[in-house]
Amino acid sequence: MPDTPLPTLKAKDFSSDQDVRWCPGCGDYSILNAVQRVCANIGATRENSVFISGIGCSSRFPYYMDTYGFHTIHGRAPGFVTGVKMANPDLDIWMITGDGDGLSIGGNHLMHLLRRNVNVNAMLFNNRIYGLTKGQYSPTSETGKKTKSSPMGSLDFPINPLSLALAAEATFVARSTDKDRGLVGVLERAAGHKGASFVEIYQNCNIFNDGAFVFATGKDVREDNVLYLEDGKPMIYGKDSNKGLRLVGNRPEVVNLDDNGVSEDDLLFHDESNKPMAEMLADLHYPDFPEVMGVLFREERPTYEGLLHDQVDAAKEKKGEGTLEALFNAGDTYEVE
Amino acid sequence: MATETTPNGAAAANARNSAVVRFAGDSGDGMQLAGTQLTDTSAILGNDVATLPDYPAEIRAPAGTVAGVSGFQVNFAAEQIFTPGDVVNALIAMNPAAFKAHYKDVEPGGIIVVNETEFSKTNLKKAGYEPGYNPIEDEAIDQQYKIYKVPITKLNQEALKDTGMSPKDVNRCKNMYALGIVYWLFDRSLDITIRHLNETFAVRKKRPEVAEANIKALKAGYFFGETAEMFPVRYAVAKAPIPTGKYRKVTGNEALAMGLITASKLAGKSLHYCTYPITPASDILHYLAPAKNYGVKTFQAEDEIAAMCAAIGVGFAGQLGVTGTSGPGLALKGEALGLAVMTELPVVVVNVQRGGPSTGLPTKTEQSDLWQAMYGRNGDCPAVVIAPQSPGDCFNAAIEAARIALTRMMPVVLLTDGYIANGSEPWRVPTESDFEPIEITHASYTPTGEKDDPGFAPYTRNENLTRPWGIPGTPGTEHRVGGLEKANGTGSVSYDPTNHQTMTRIRAEKVNRVQNMVPDIEVQGDEDADLLVLGWGGPYGSILTAVNNIREQGKKVATTHLRYLSPMPKNLGDVLKKYDKVLIPELNNGQLRLILRGKFLCDARGLNKIQGKPFLVEEIEQAIELLLSGEWGDAEALYPVDGNVDVNAQALTV
After folding, report:
1. Among candidates A313, A78, A168, A83, which has minimal Cα distance to B323?
2. Fewest C-beta in 10 Å: which of A13, A216, B148, B408?
């Protein structure tokens, strides 16, 4: 290895030579740009970065990164992530999944990846539709959604990715959108978190589900519908920063700070270490409430691969490094003369 | 038969060449432990040994019922043996259900020791006997066998009454009492089992009182045999003429686990065993999980699919990834296994076969996953398939599987079965220098710095068509792999029609070129015979014994064994051509037979047993006789029924 420090990489240095083949106007483009910027900002190296995905539009992501990449099979990226991380804990792993890949066929694996706290940055691109198979409803589609496979409206009740991640004991849970100025910051914090970080990204599919997140991304409306969480700060939002969230009894309520008798001190203050509050925030839905963006929850917990390697080290220390001679001669041996 | 005086001088012992002893009782009666102890003791005393555990699928089926009977058969011999034995010389039946399930396997005139205490009205009823009937009072049965009625439960209670242990704990020692009787009957030393009991209970579990009680029960059983004057003779089985050296007894699963660790050390890679518990493969995990000081990492995944994916991820990251399962699990792993074929990554997939389809017979043996291992994936998706032939051979096969996977960049399926996985035999302890290292070079690439630098090309190939193994963490070899078709050379996603055809042929040819690591098959027996008996996997021992027996009668027959199912050895076609008749005994409905018929246009006939049990030597002998005499006729396959291969009893009874 050369001793000279490697030149700092720029965002474009993480771009591979492959033509990006998402539909023009797809929200995935801006997420790709954001991730490449994050890689540059955090000083990532190409050789230590591994992008692992399942199947779906979003899962083409690894082909467009000039790093190591593995485009695996539908829903199973978490298994590959766990294997790679066990074999080499020093790698920076990014996992890309979608609402179909991660919550439908791969729902089981996502849950276990999170509870084990494998050190990975998991990004779930949620466009509330199946794009690659051309427009069927997904596990996050709203009930009654009319699609090719649900002409009379979908019967399924949608799942909430953030609630699922929290219930699965993820140690870092956040949300952003493909058009959000905060996306880079959220992903940087996810990358800095040691453990399984889960970031849901509202992503527009302009072909099959255009405008699904207009309430949260539309220039004119988003500020009135989205609340940016900041640790230790009161929960204020709105175009005029005059709306807030407070608890009345044990229920959240939207209040107007312009109203008499309501002050900042009455509002909820965000605390990233407060899991019950995170669970409540994850469950706030437009239009009754603002939808929260940013880091909902964060805690420190040992990583799976770290604990695994610790056990190996402890066993070696206790029993001594195993040799083949010891292996062959373990148990009851006897001589035949 | 020679009669000799035993060291303790108490009674004369008749020498015999071998003895097949079967312990049978409730699944909670400790029969597996008693059987294992007889095996270990006999191996250490210098016998050749082979075992056949047989346990129910239910952890605790209702006590006393036939469904809950657990058995363990040991064959120990003064000669080389390859099977646990067709017929039982001595059966220990701990209750009426055990008697009912097993007594018919005992040879005429053979010994049956019954635990008389348990032959109560209630237990006879639980075993499904008619009211008022007791088989051990049945004169017809009594005339057929030498039945010894010993009130084992009661005598054991009596022997342990002063230990202060609870009645439940006392009763748990009755397997040792029964073992003591067997040790007396077959003139075995108690020392090895006493040592084992002390190590297990006194040292490891810190319960010296349990060790003491078990040892007391063992001795009491032995002394009962000595003093009761119930047994007219005892038997002695002398040492077997096995090659000198250091040995230990291994089961197939244990040997396989050791083989994987050995391979990892030979390759300088750490072993990652990623799996989901499934019978009968779980013991591999149980063996590897405590082996962390060998650098072994075990991952109990959330399901079979995740286990397979993790093992491939390990290979992608540059280490040795292995997954283990049984038939239903292999079905779940199929898609990911296809990805390993497509991305040309090293991974070893162990499939300990059991009775299928679906959940099938989880605790019983079968060889019915051959097609699944060879073809059970979407697309043209070839993989290397190796099947070990005996418990000890699982060790070598595991090393070979890892060597091929790591040096040829491809998945390898290791097909064992419940019979060899749970069976055991003496295994000669090797030394490290017996093995060639597994040499691996990881790819490197130095960017030219030019604008037209093509970069690292992950799908270039050497003379074996192996692609370079570039691993994350290495600057210069950054690349992307995935399930989409790859352009040969660059590895970029390619939908080019000609490239897809080329790549499909390359994937097949890659497997074929493993032939240069596969030894030619060797024919044993009469080269000029008309009949070749060809086997694979677990039936090896039964086939070899049957062929040897037939040849001893002066008849000509040859045999050979396929360890490599894919690719097959280079000379297999030429060998098959030399024989007019080919018999393939398989524990399935003719899977290898169809493959060899298709591949070599060979009129192979099958002996197909699908009963969840290994072949009896006798069954294979009968099939050979039928083919030699011409009585076999035109049937493509025959099925044994109740131990008989009868051309007139082949109709499907529905």
Report:
1. A83
2. A13
Q: Are residues A170 and A124 in the same domain?
A: yes
Query: Is there a single domain that holds both residue A115 and residue A257?
Result: no
Q: Three-class SS of residue B263?
A: helix
Name the domain count of chain A. Answer: 2
What residues of chain B, 605 to 624, have a C-beta less than 8 Å from chain A?
Answer: none
Domains of chain B, with CATH numbers? 3-236 (3.40.920.10), 248-434 (3.40.50.970), 442-517 (no CATH), 524-638 (3.40.50.920)
- According to DSSP, residue A324 is labeled H
DSSP secondary-structure letter at A279?
H
Whether residues A164 and A276 share a domain: the answer is no
Give a yes or no: residue A2 inside a domain: no
Tell me the residues of chain A between 73 and 92 that have a Cβ less than 8 Å away from chain B: 73, 76, 78-88, 90-91
Q: Give the nearest partner residue to B40 out of A91, A314, A332, using CB atoms.
A: A332
- The verdict on residue A132 lying in a domain is yes
Q: pLDDT digits over A141-179, tens only?
A: 999 999 999 999 999 999 999 999 999 999 999 999 999
Give a yes or no: residue A23 inside a domain.
yes
Q: Provide Rg for chain B, Cα atoms.
A: 27
Which pLDDT band, with edges at 50, 70 and 90, does B448 fall under? confident
Instruction: Please report, as a single letter, which amino acid is at residue A92.
Output: D
Give residue B7's pLDDT. Answer: 43
Give the side-chain half-sphere CA count within 13 A for B641. 9
Q: Is B204 on the interface with A (CB under 8 A)?
A: no
B237 touches chain A (CB under 8 A): no
In a shared domain, residues A14 and A76 = yes
**Alpha-carbon distance values, B293 to A90, B14, B234, B310 (Å):** 21, 48, 46, 21
pLDDT surpassing 70 at residue A7: no
Does the model's ipTM exceed the 0.95 cut?
yes
Residue type (1 letter), A298:
R
Output the domain CATH number for residue A101: 3.40.50.970
Contact indicator for A202, A291 with CB cutoff of 8 Å: no
What is the domain range of residue A140? 7-212+302-337
Which residue is it, tokens 């099958």?
Answer: B606
Q: Within this chain, do residues A127 and A276 fall inside the same structural domain, yes or no? A: no
B310 part of contact set with chain A, CB < 8 Å = yes
* pLDDT bracket for residue B451 (50, 70, 90): confident
> Are A67 and A143 in a shared domain?
yes
CB-based contact, A286 to chain B, within 8 Å:
no
State which of A268, A289, A310 marks the end of a domain: A289
Whether B295 and chain A come into contact, CB under 8 Å, resolves to: yes
Query: Which one-letter DSSP state was computed for residue B99?
Result: H
Confidence of residue B454 (pLDDT cuts 50, 70, 90): confident
Same domain, A281 and A325: no
Chain B environment of A80 (Cβ under 8 Å): 309-310, 312-313, 316
Measured in residues, chain A has a length of 337
- Cα separation, A325 vs B291, in Å, equals 14
Please give the residue of chain A at the shortest CA–CA distance from B37. Answer: A332
Instruction: Look up residue B494 and give its two tokens.
Output: 């390619």
* Neighbouring-strand partners of residue B414: B350, B386
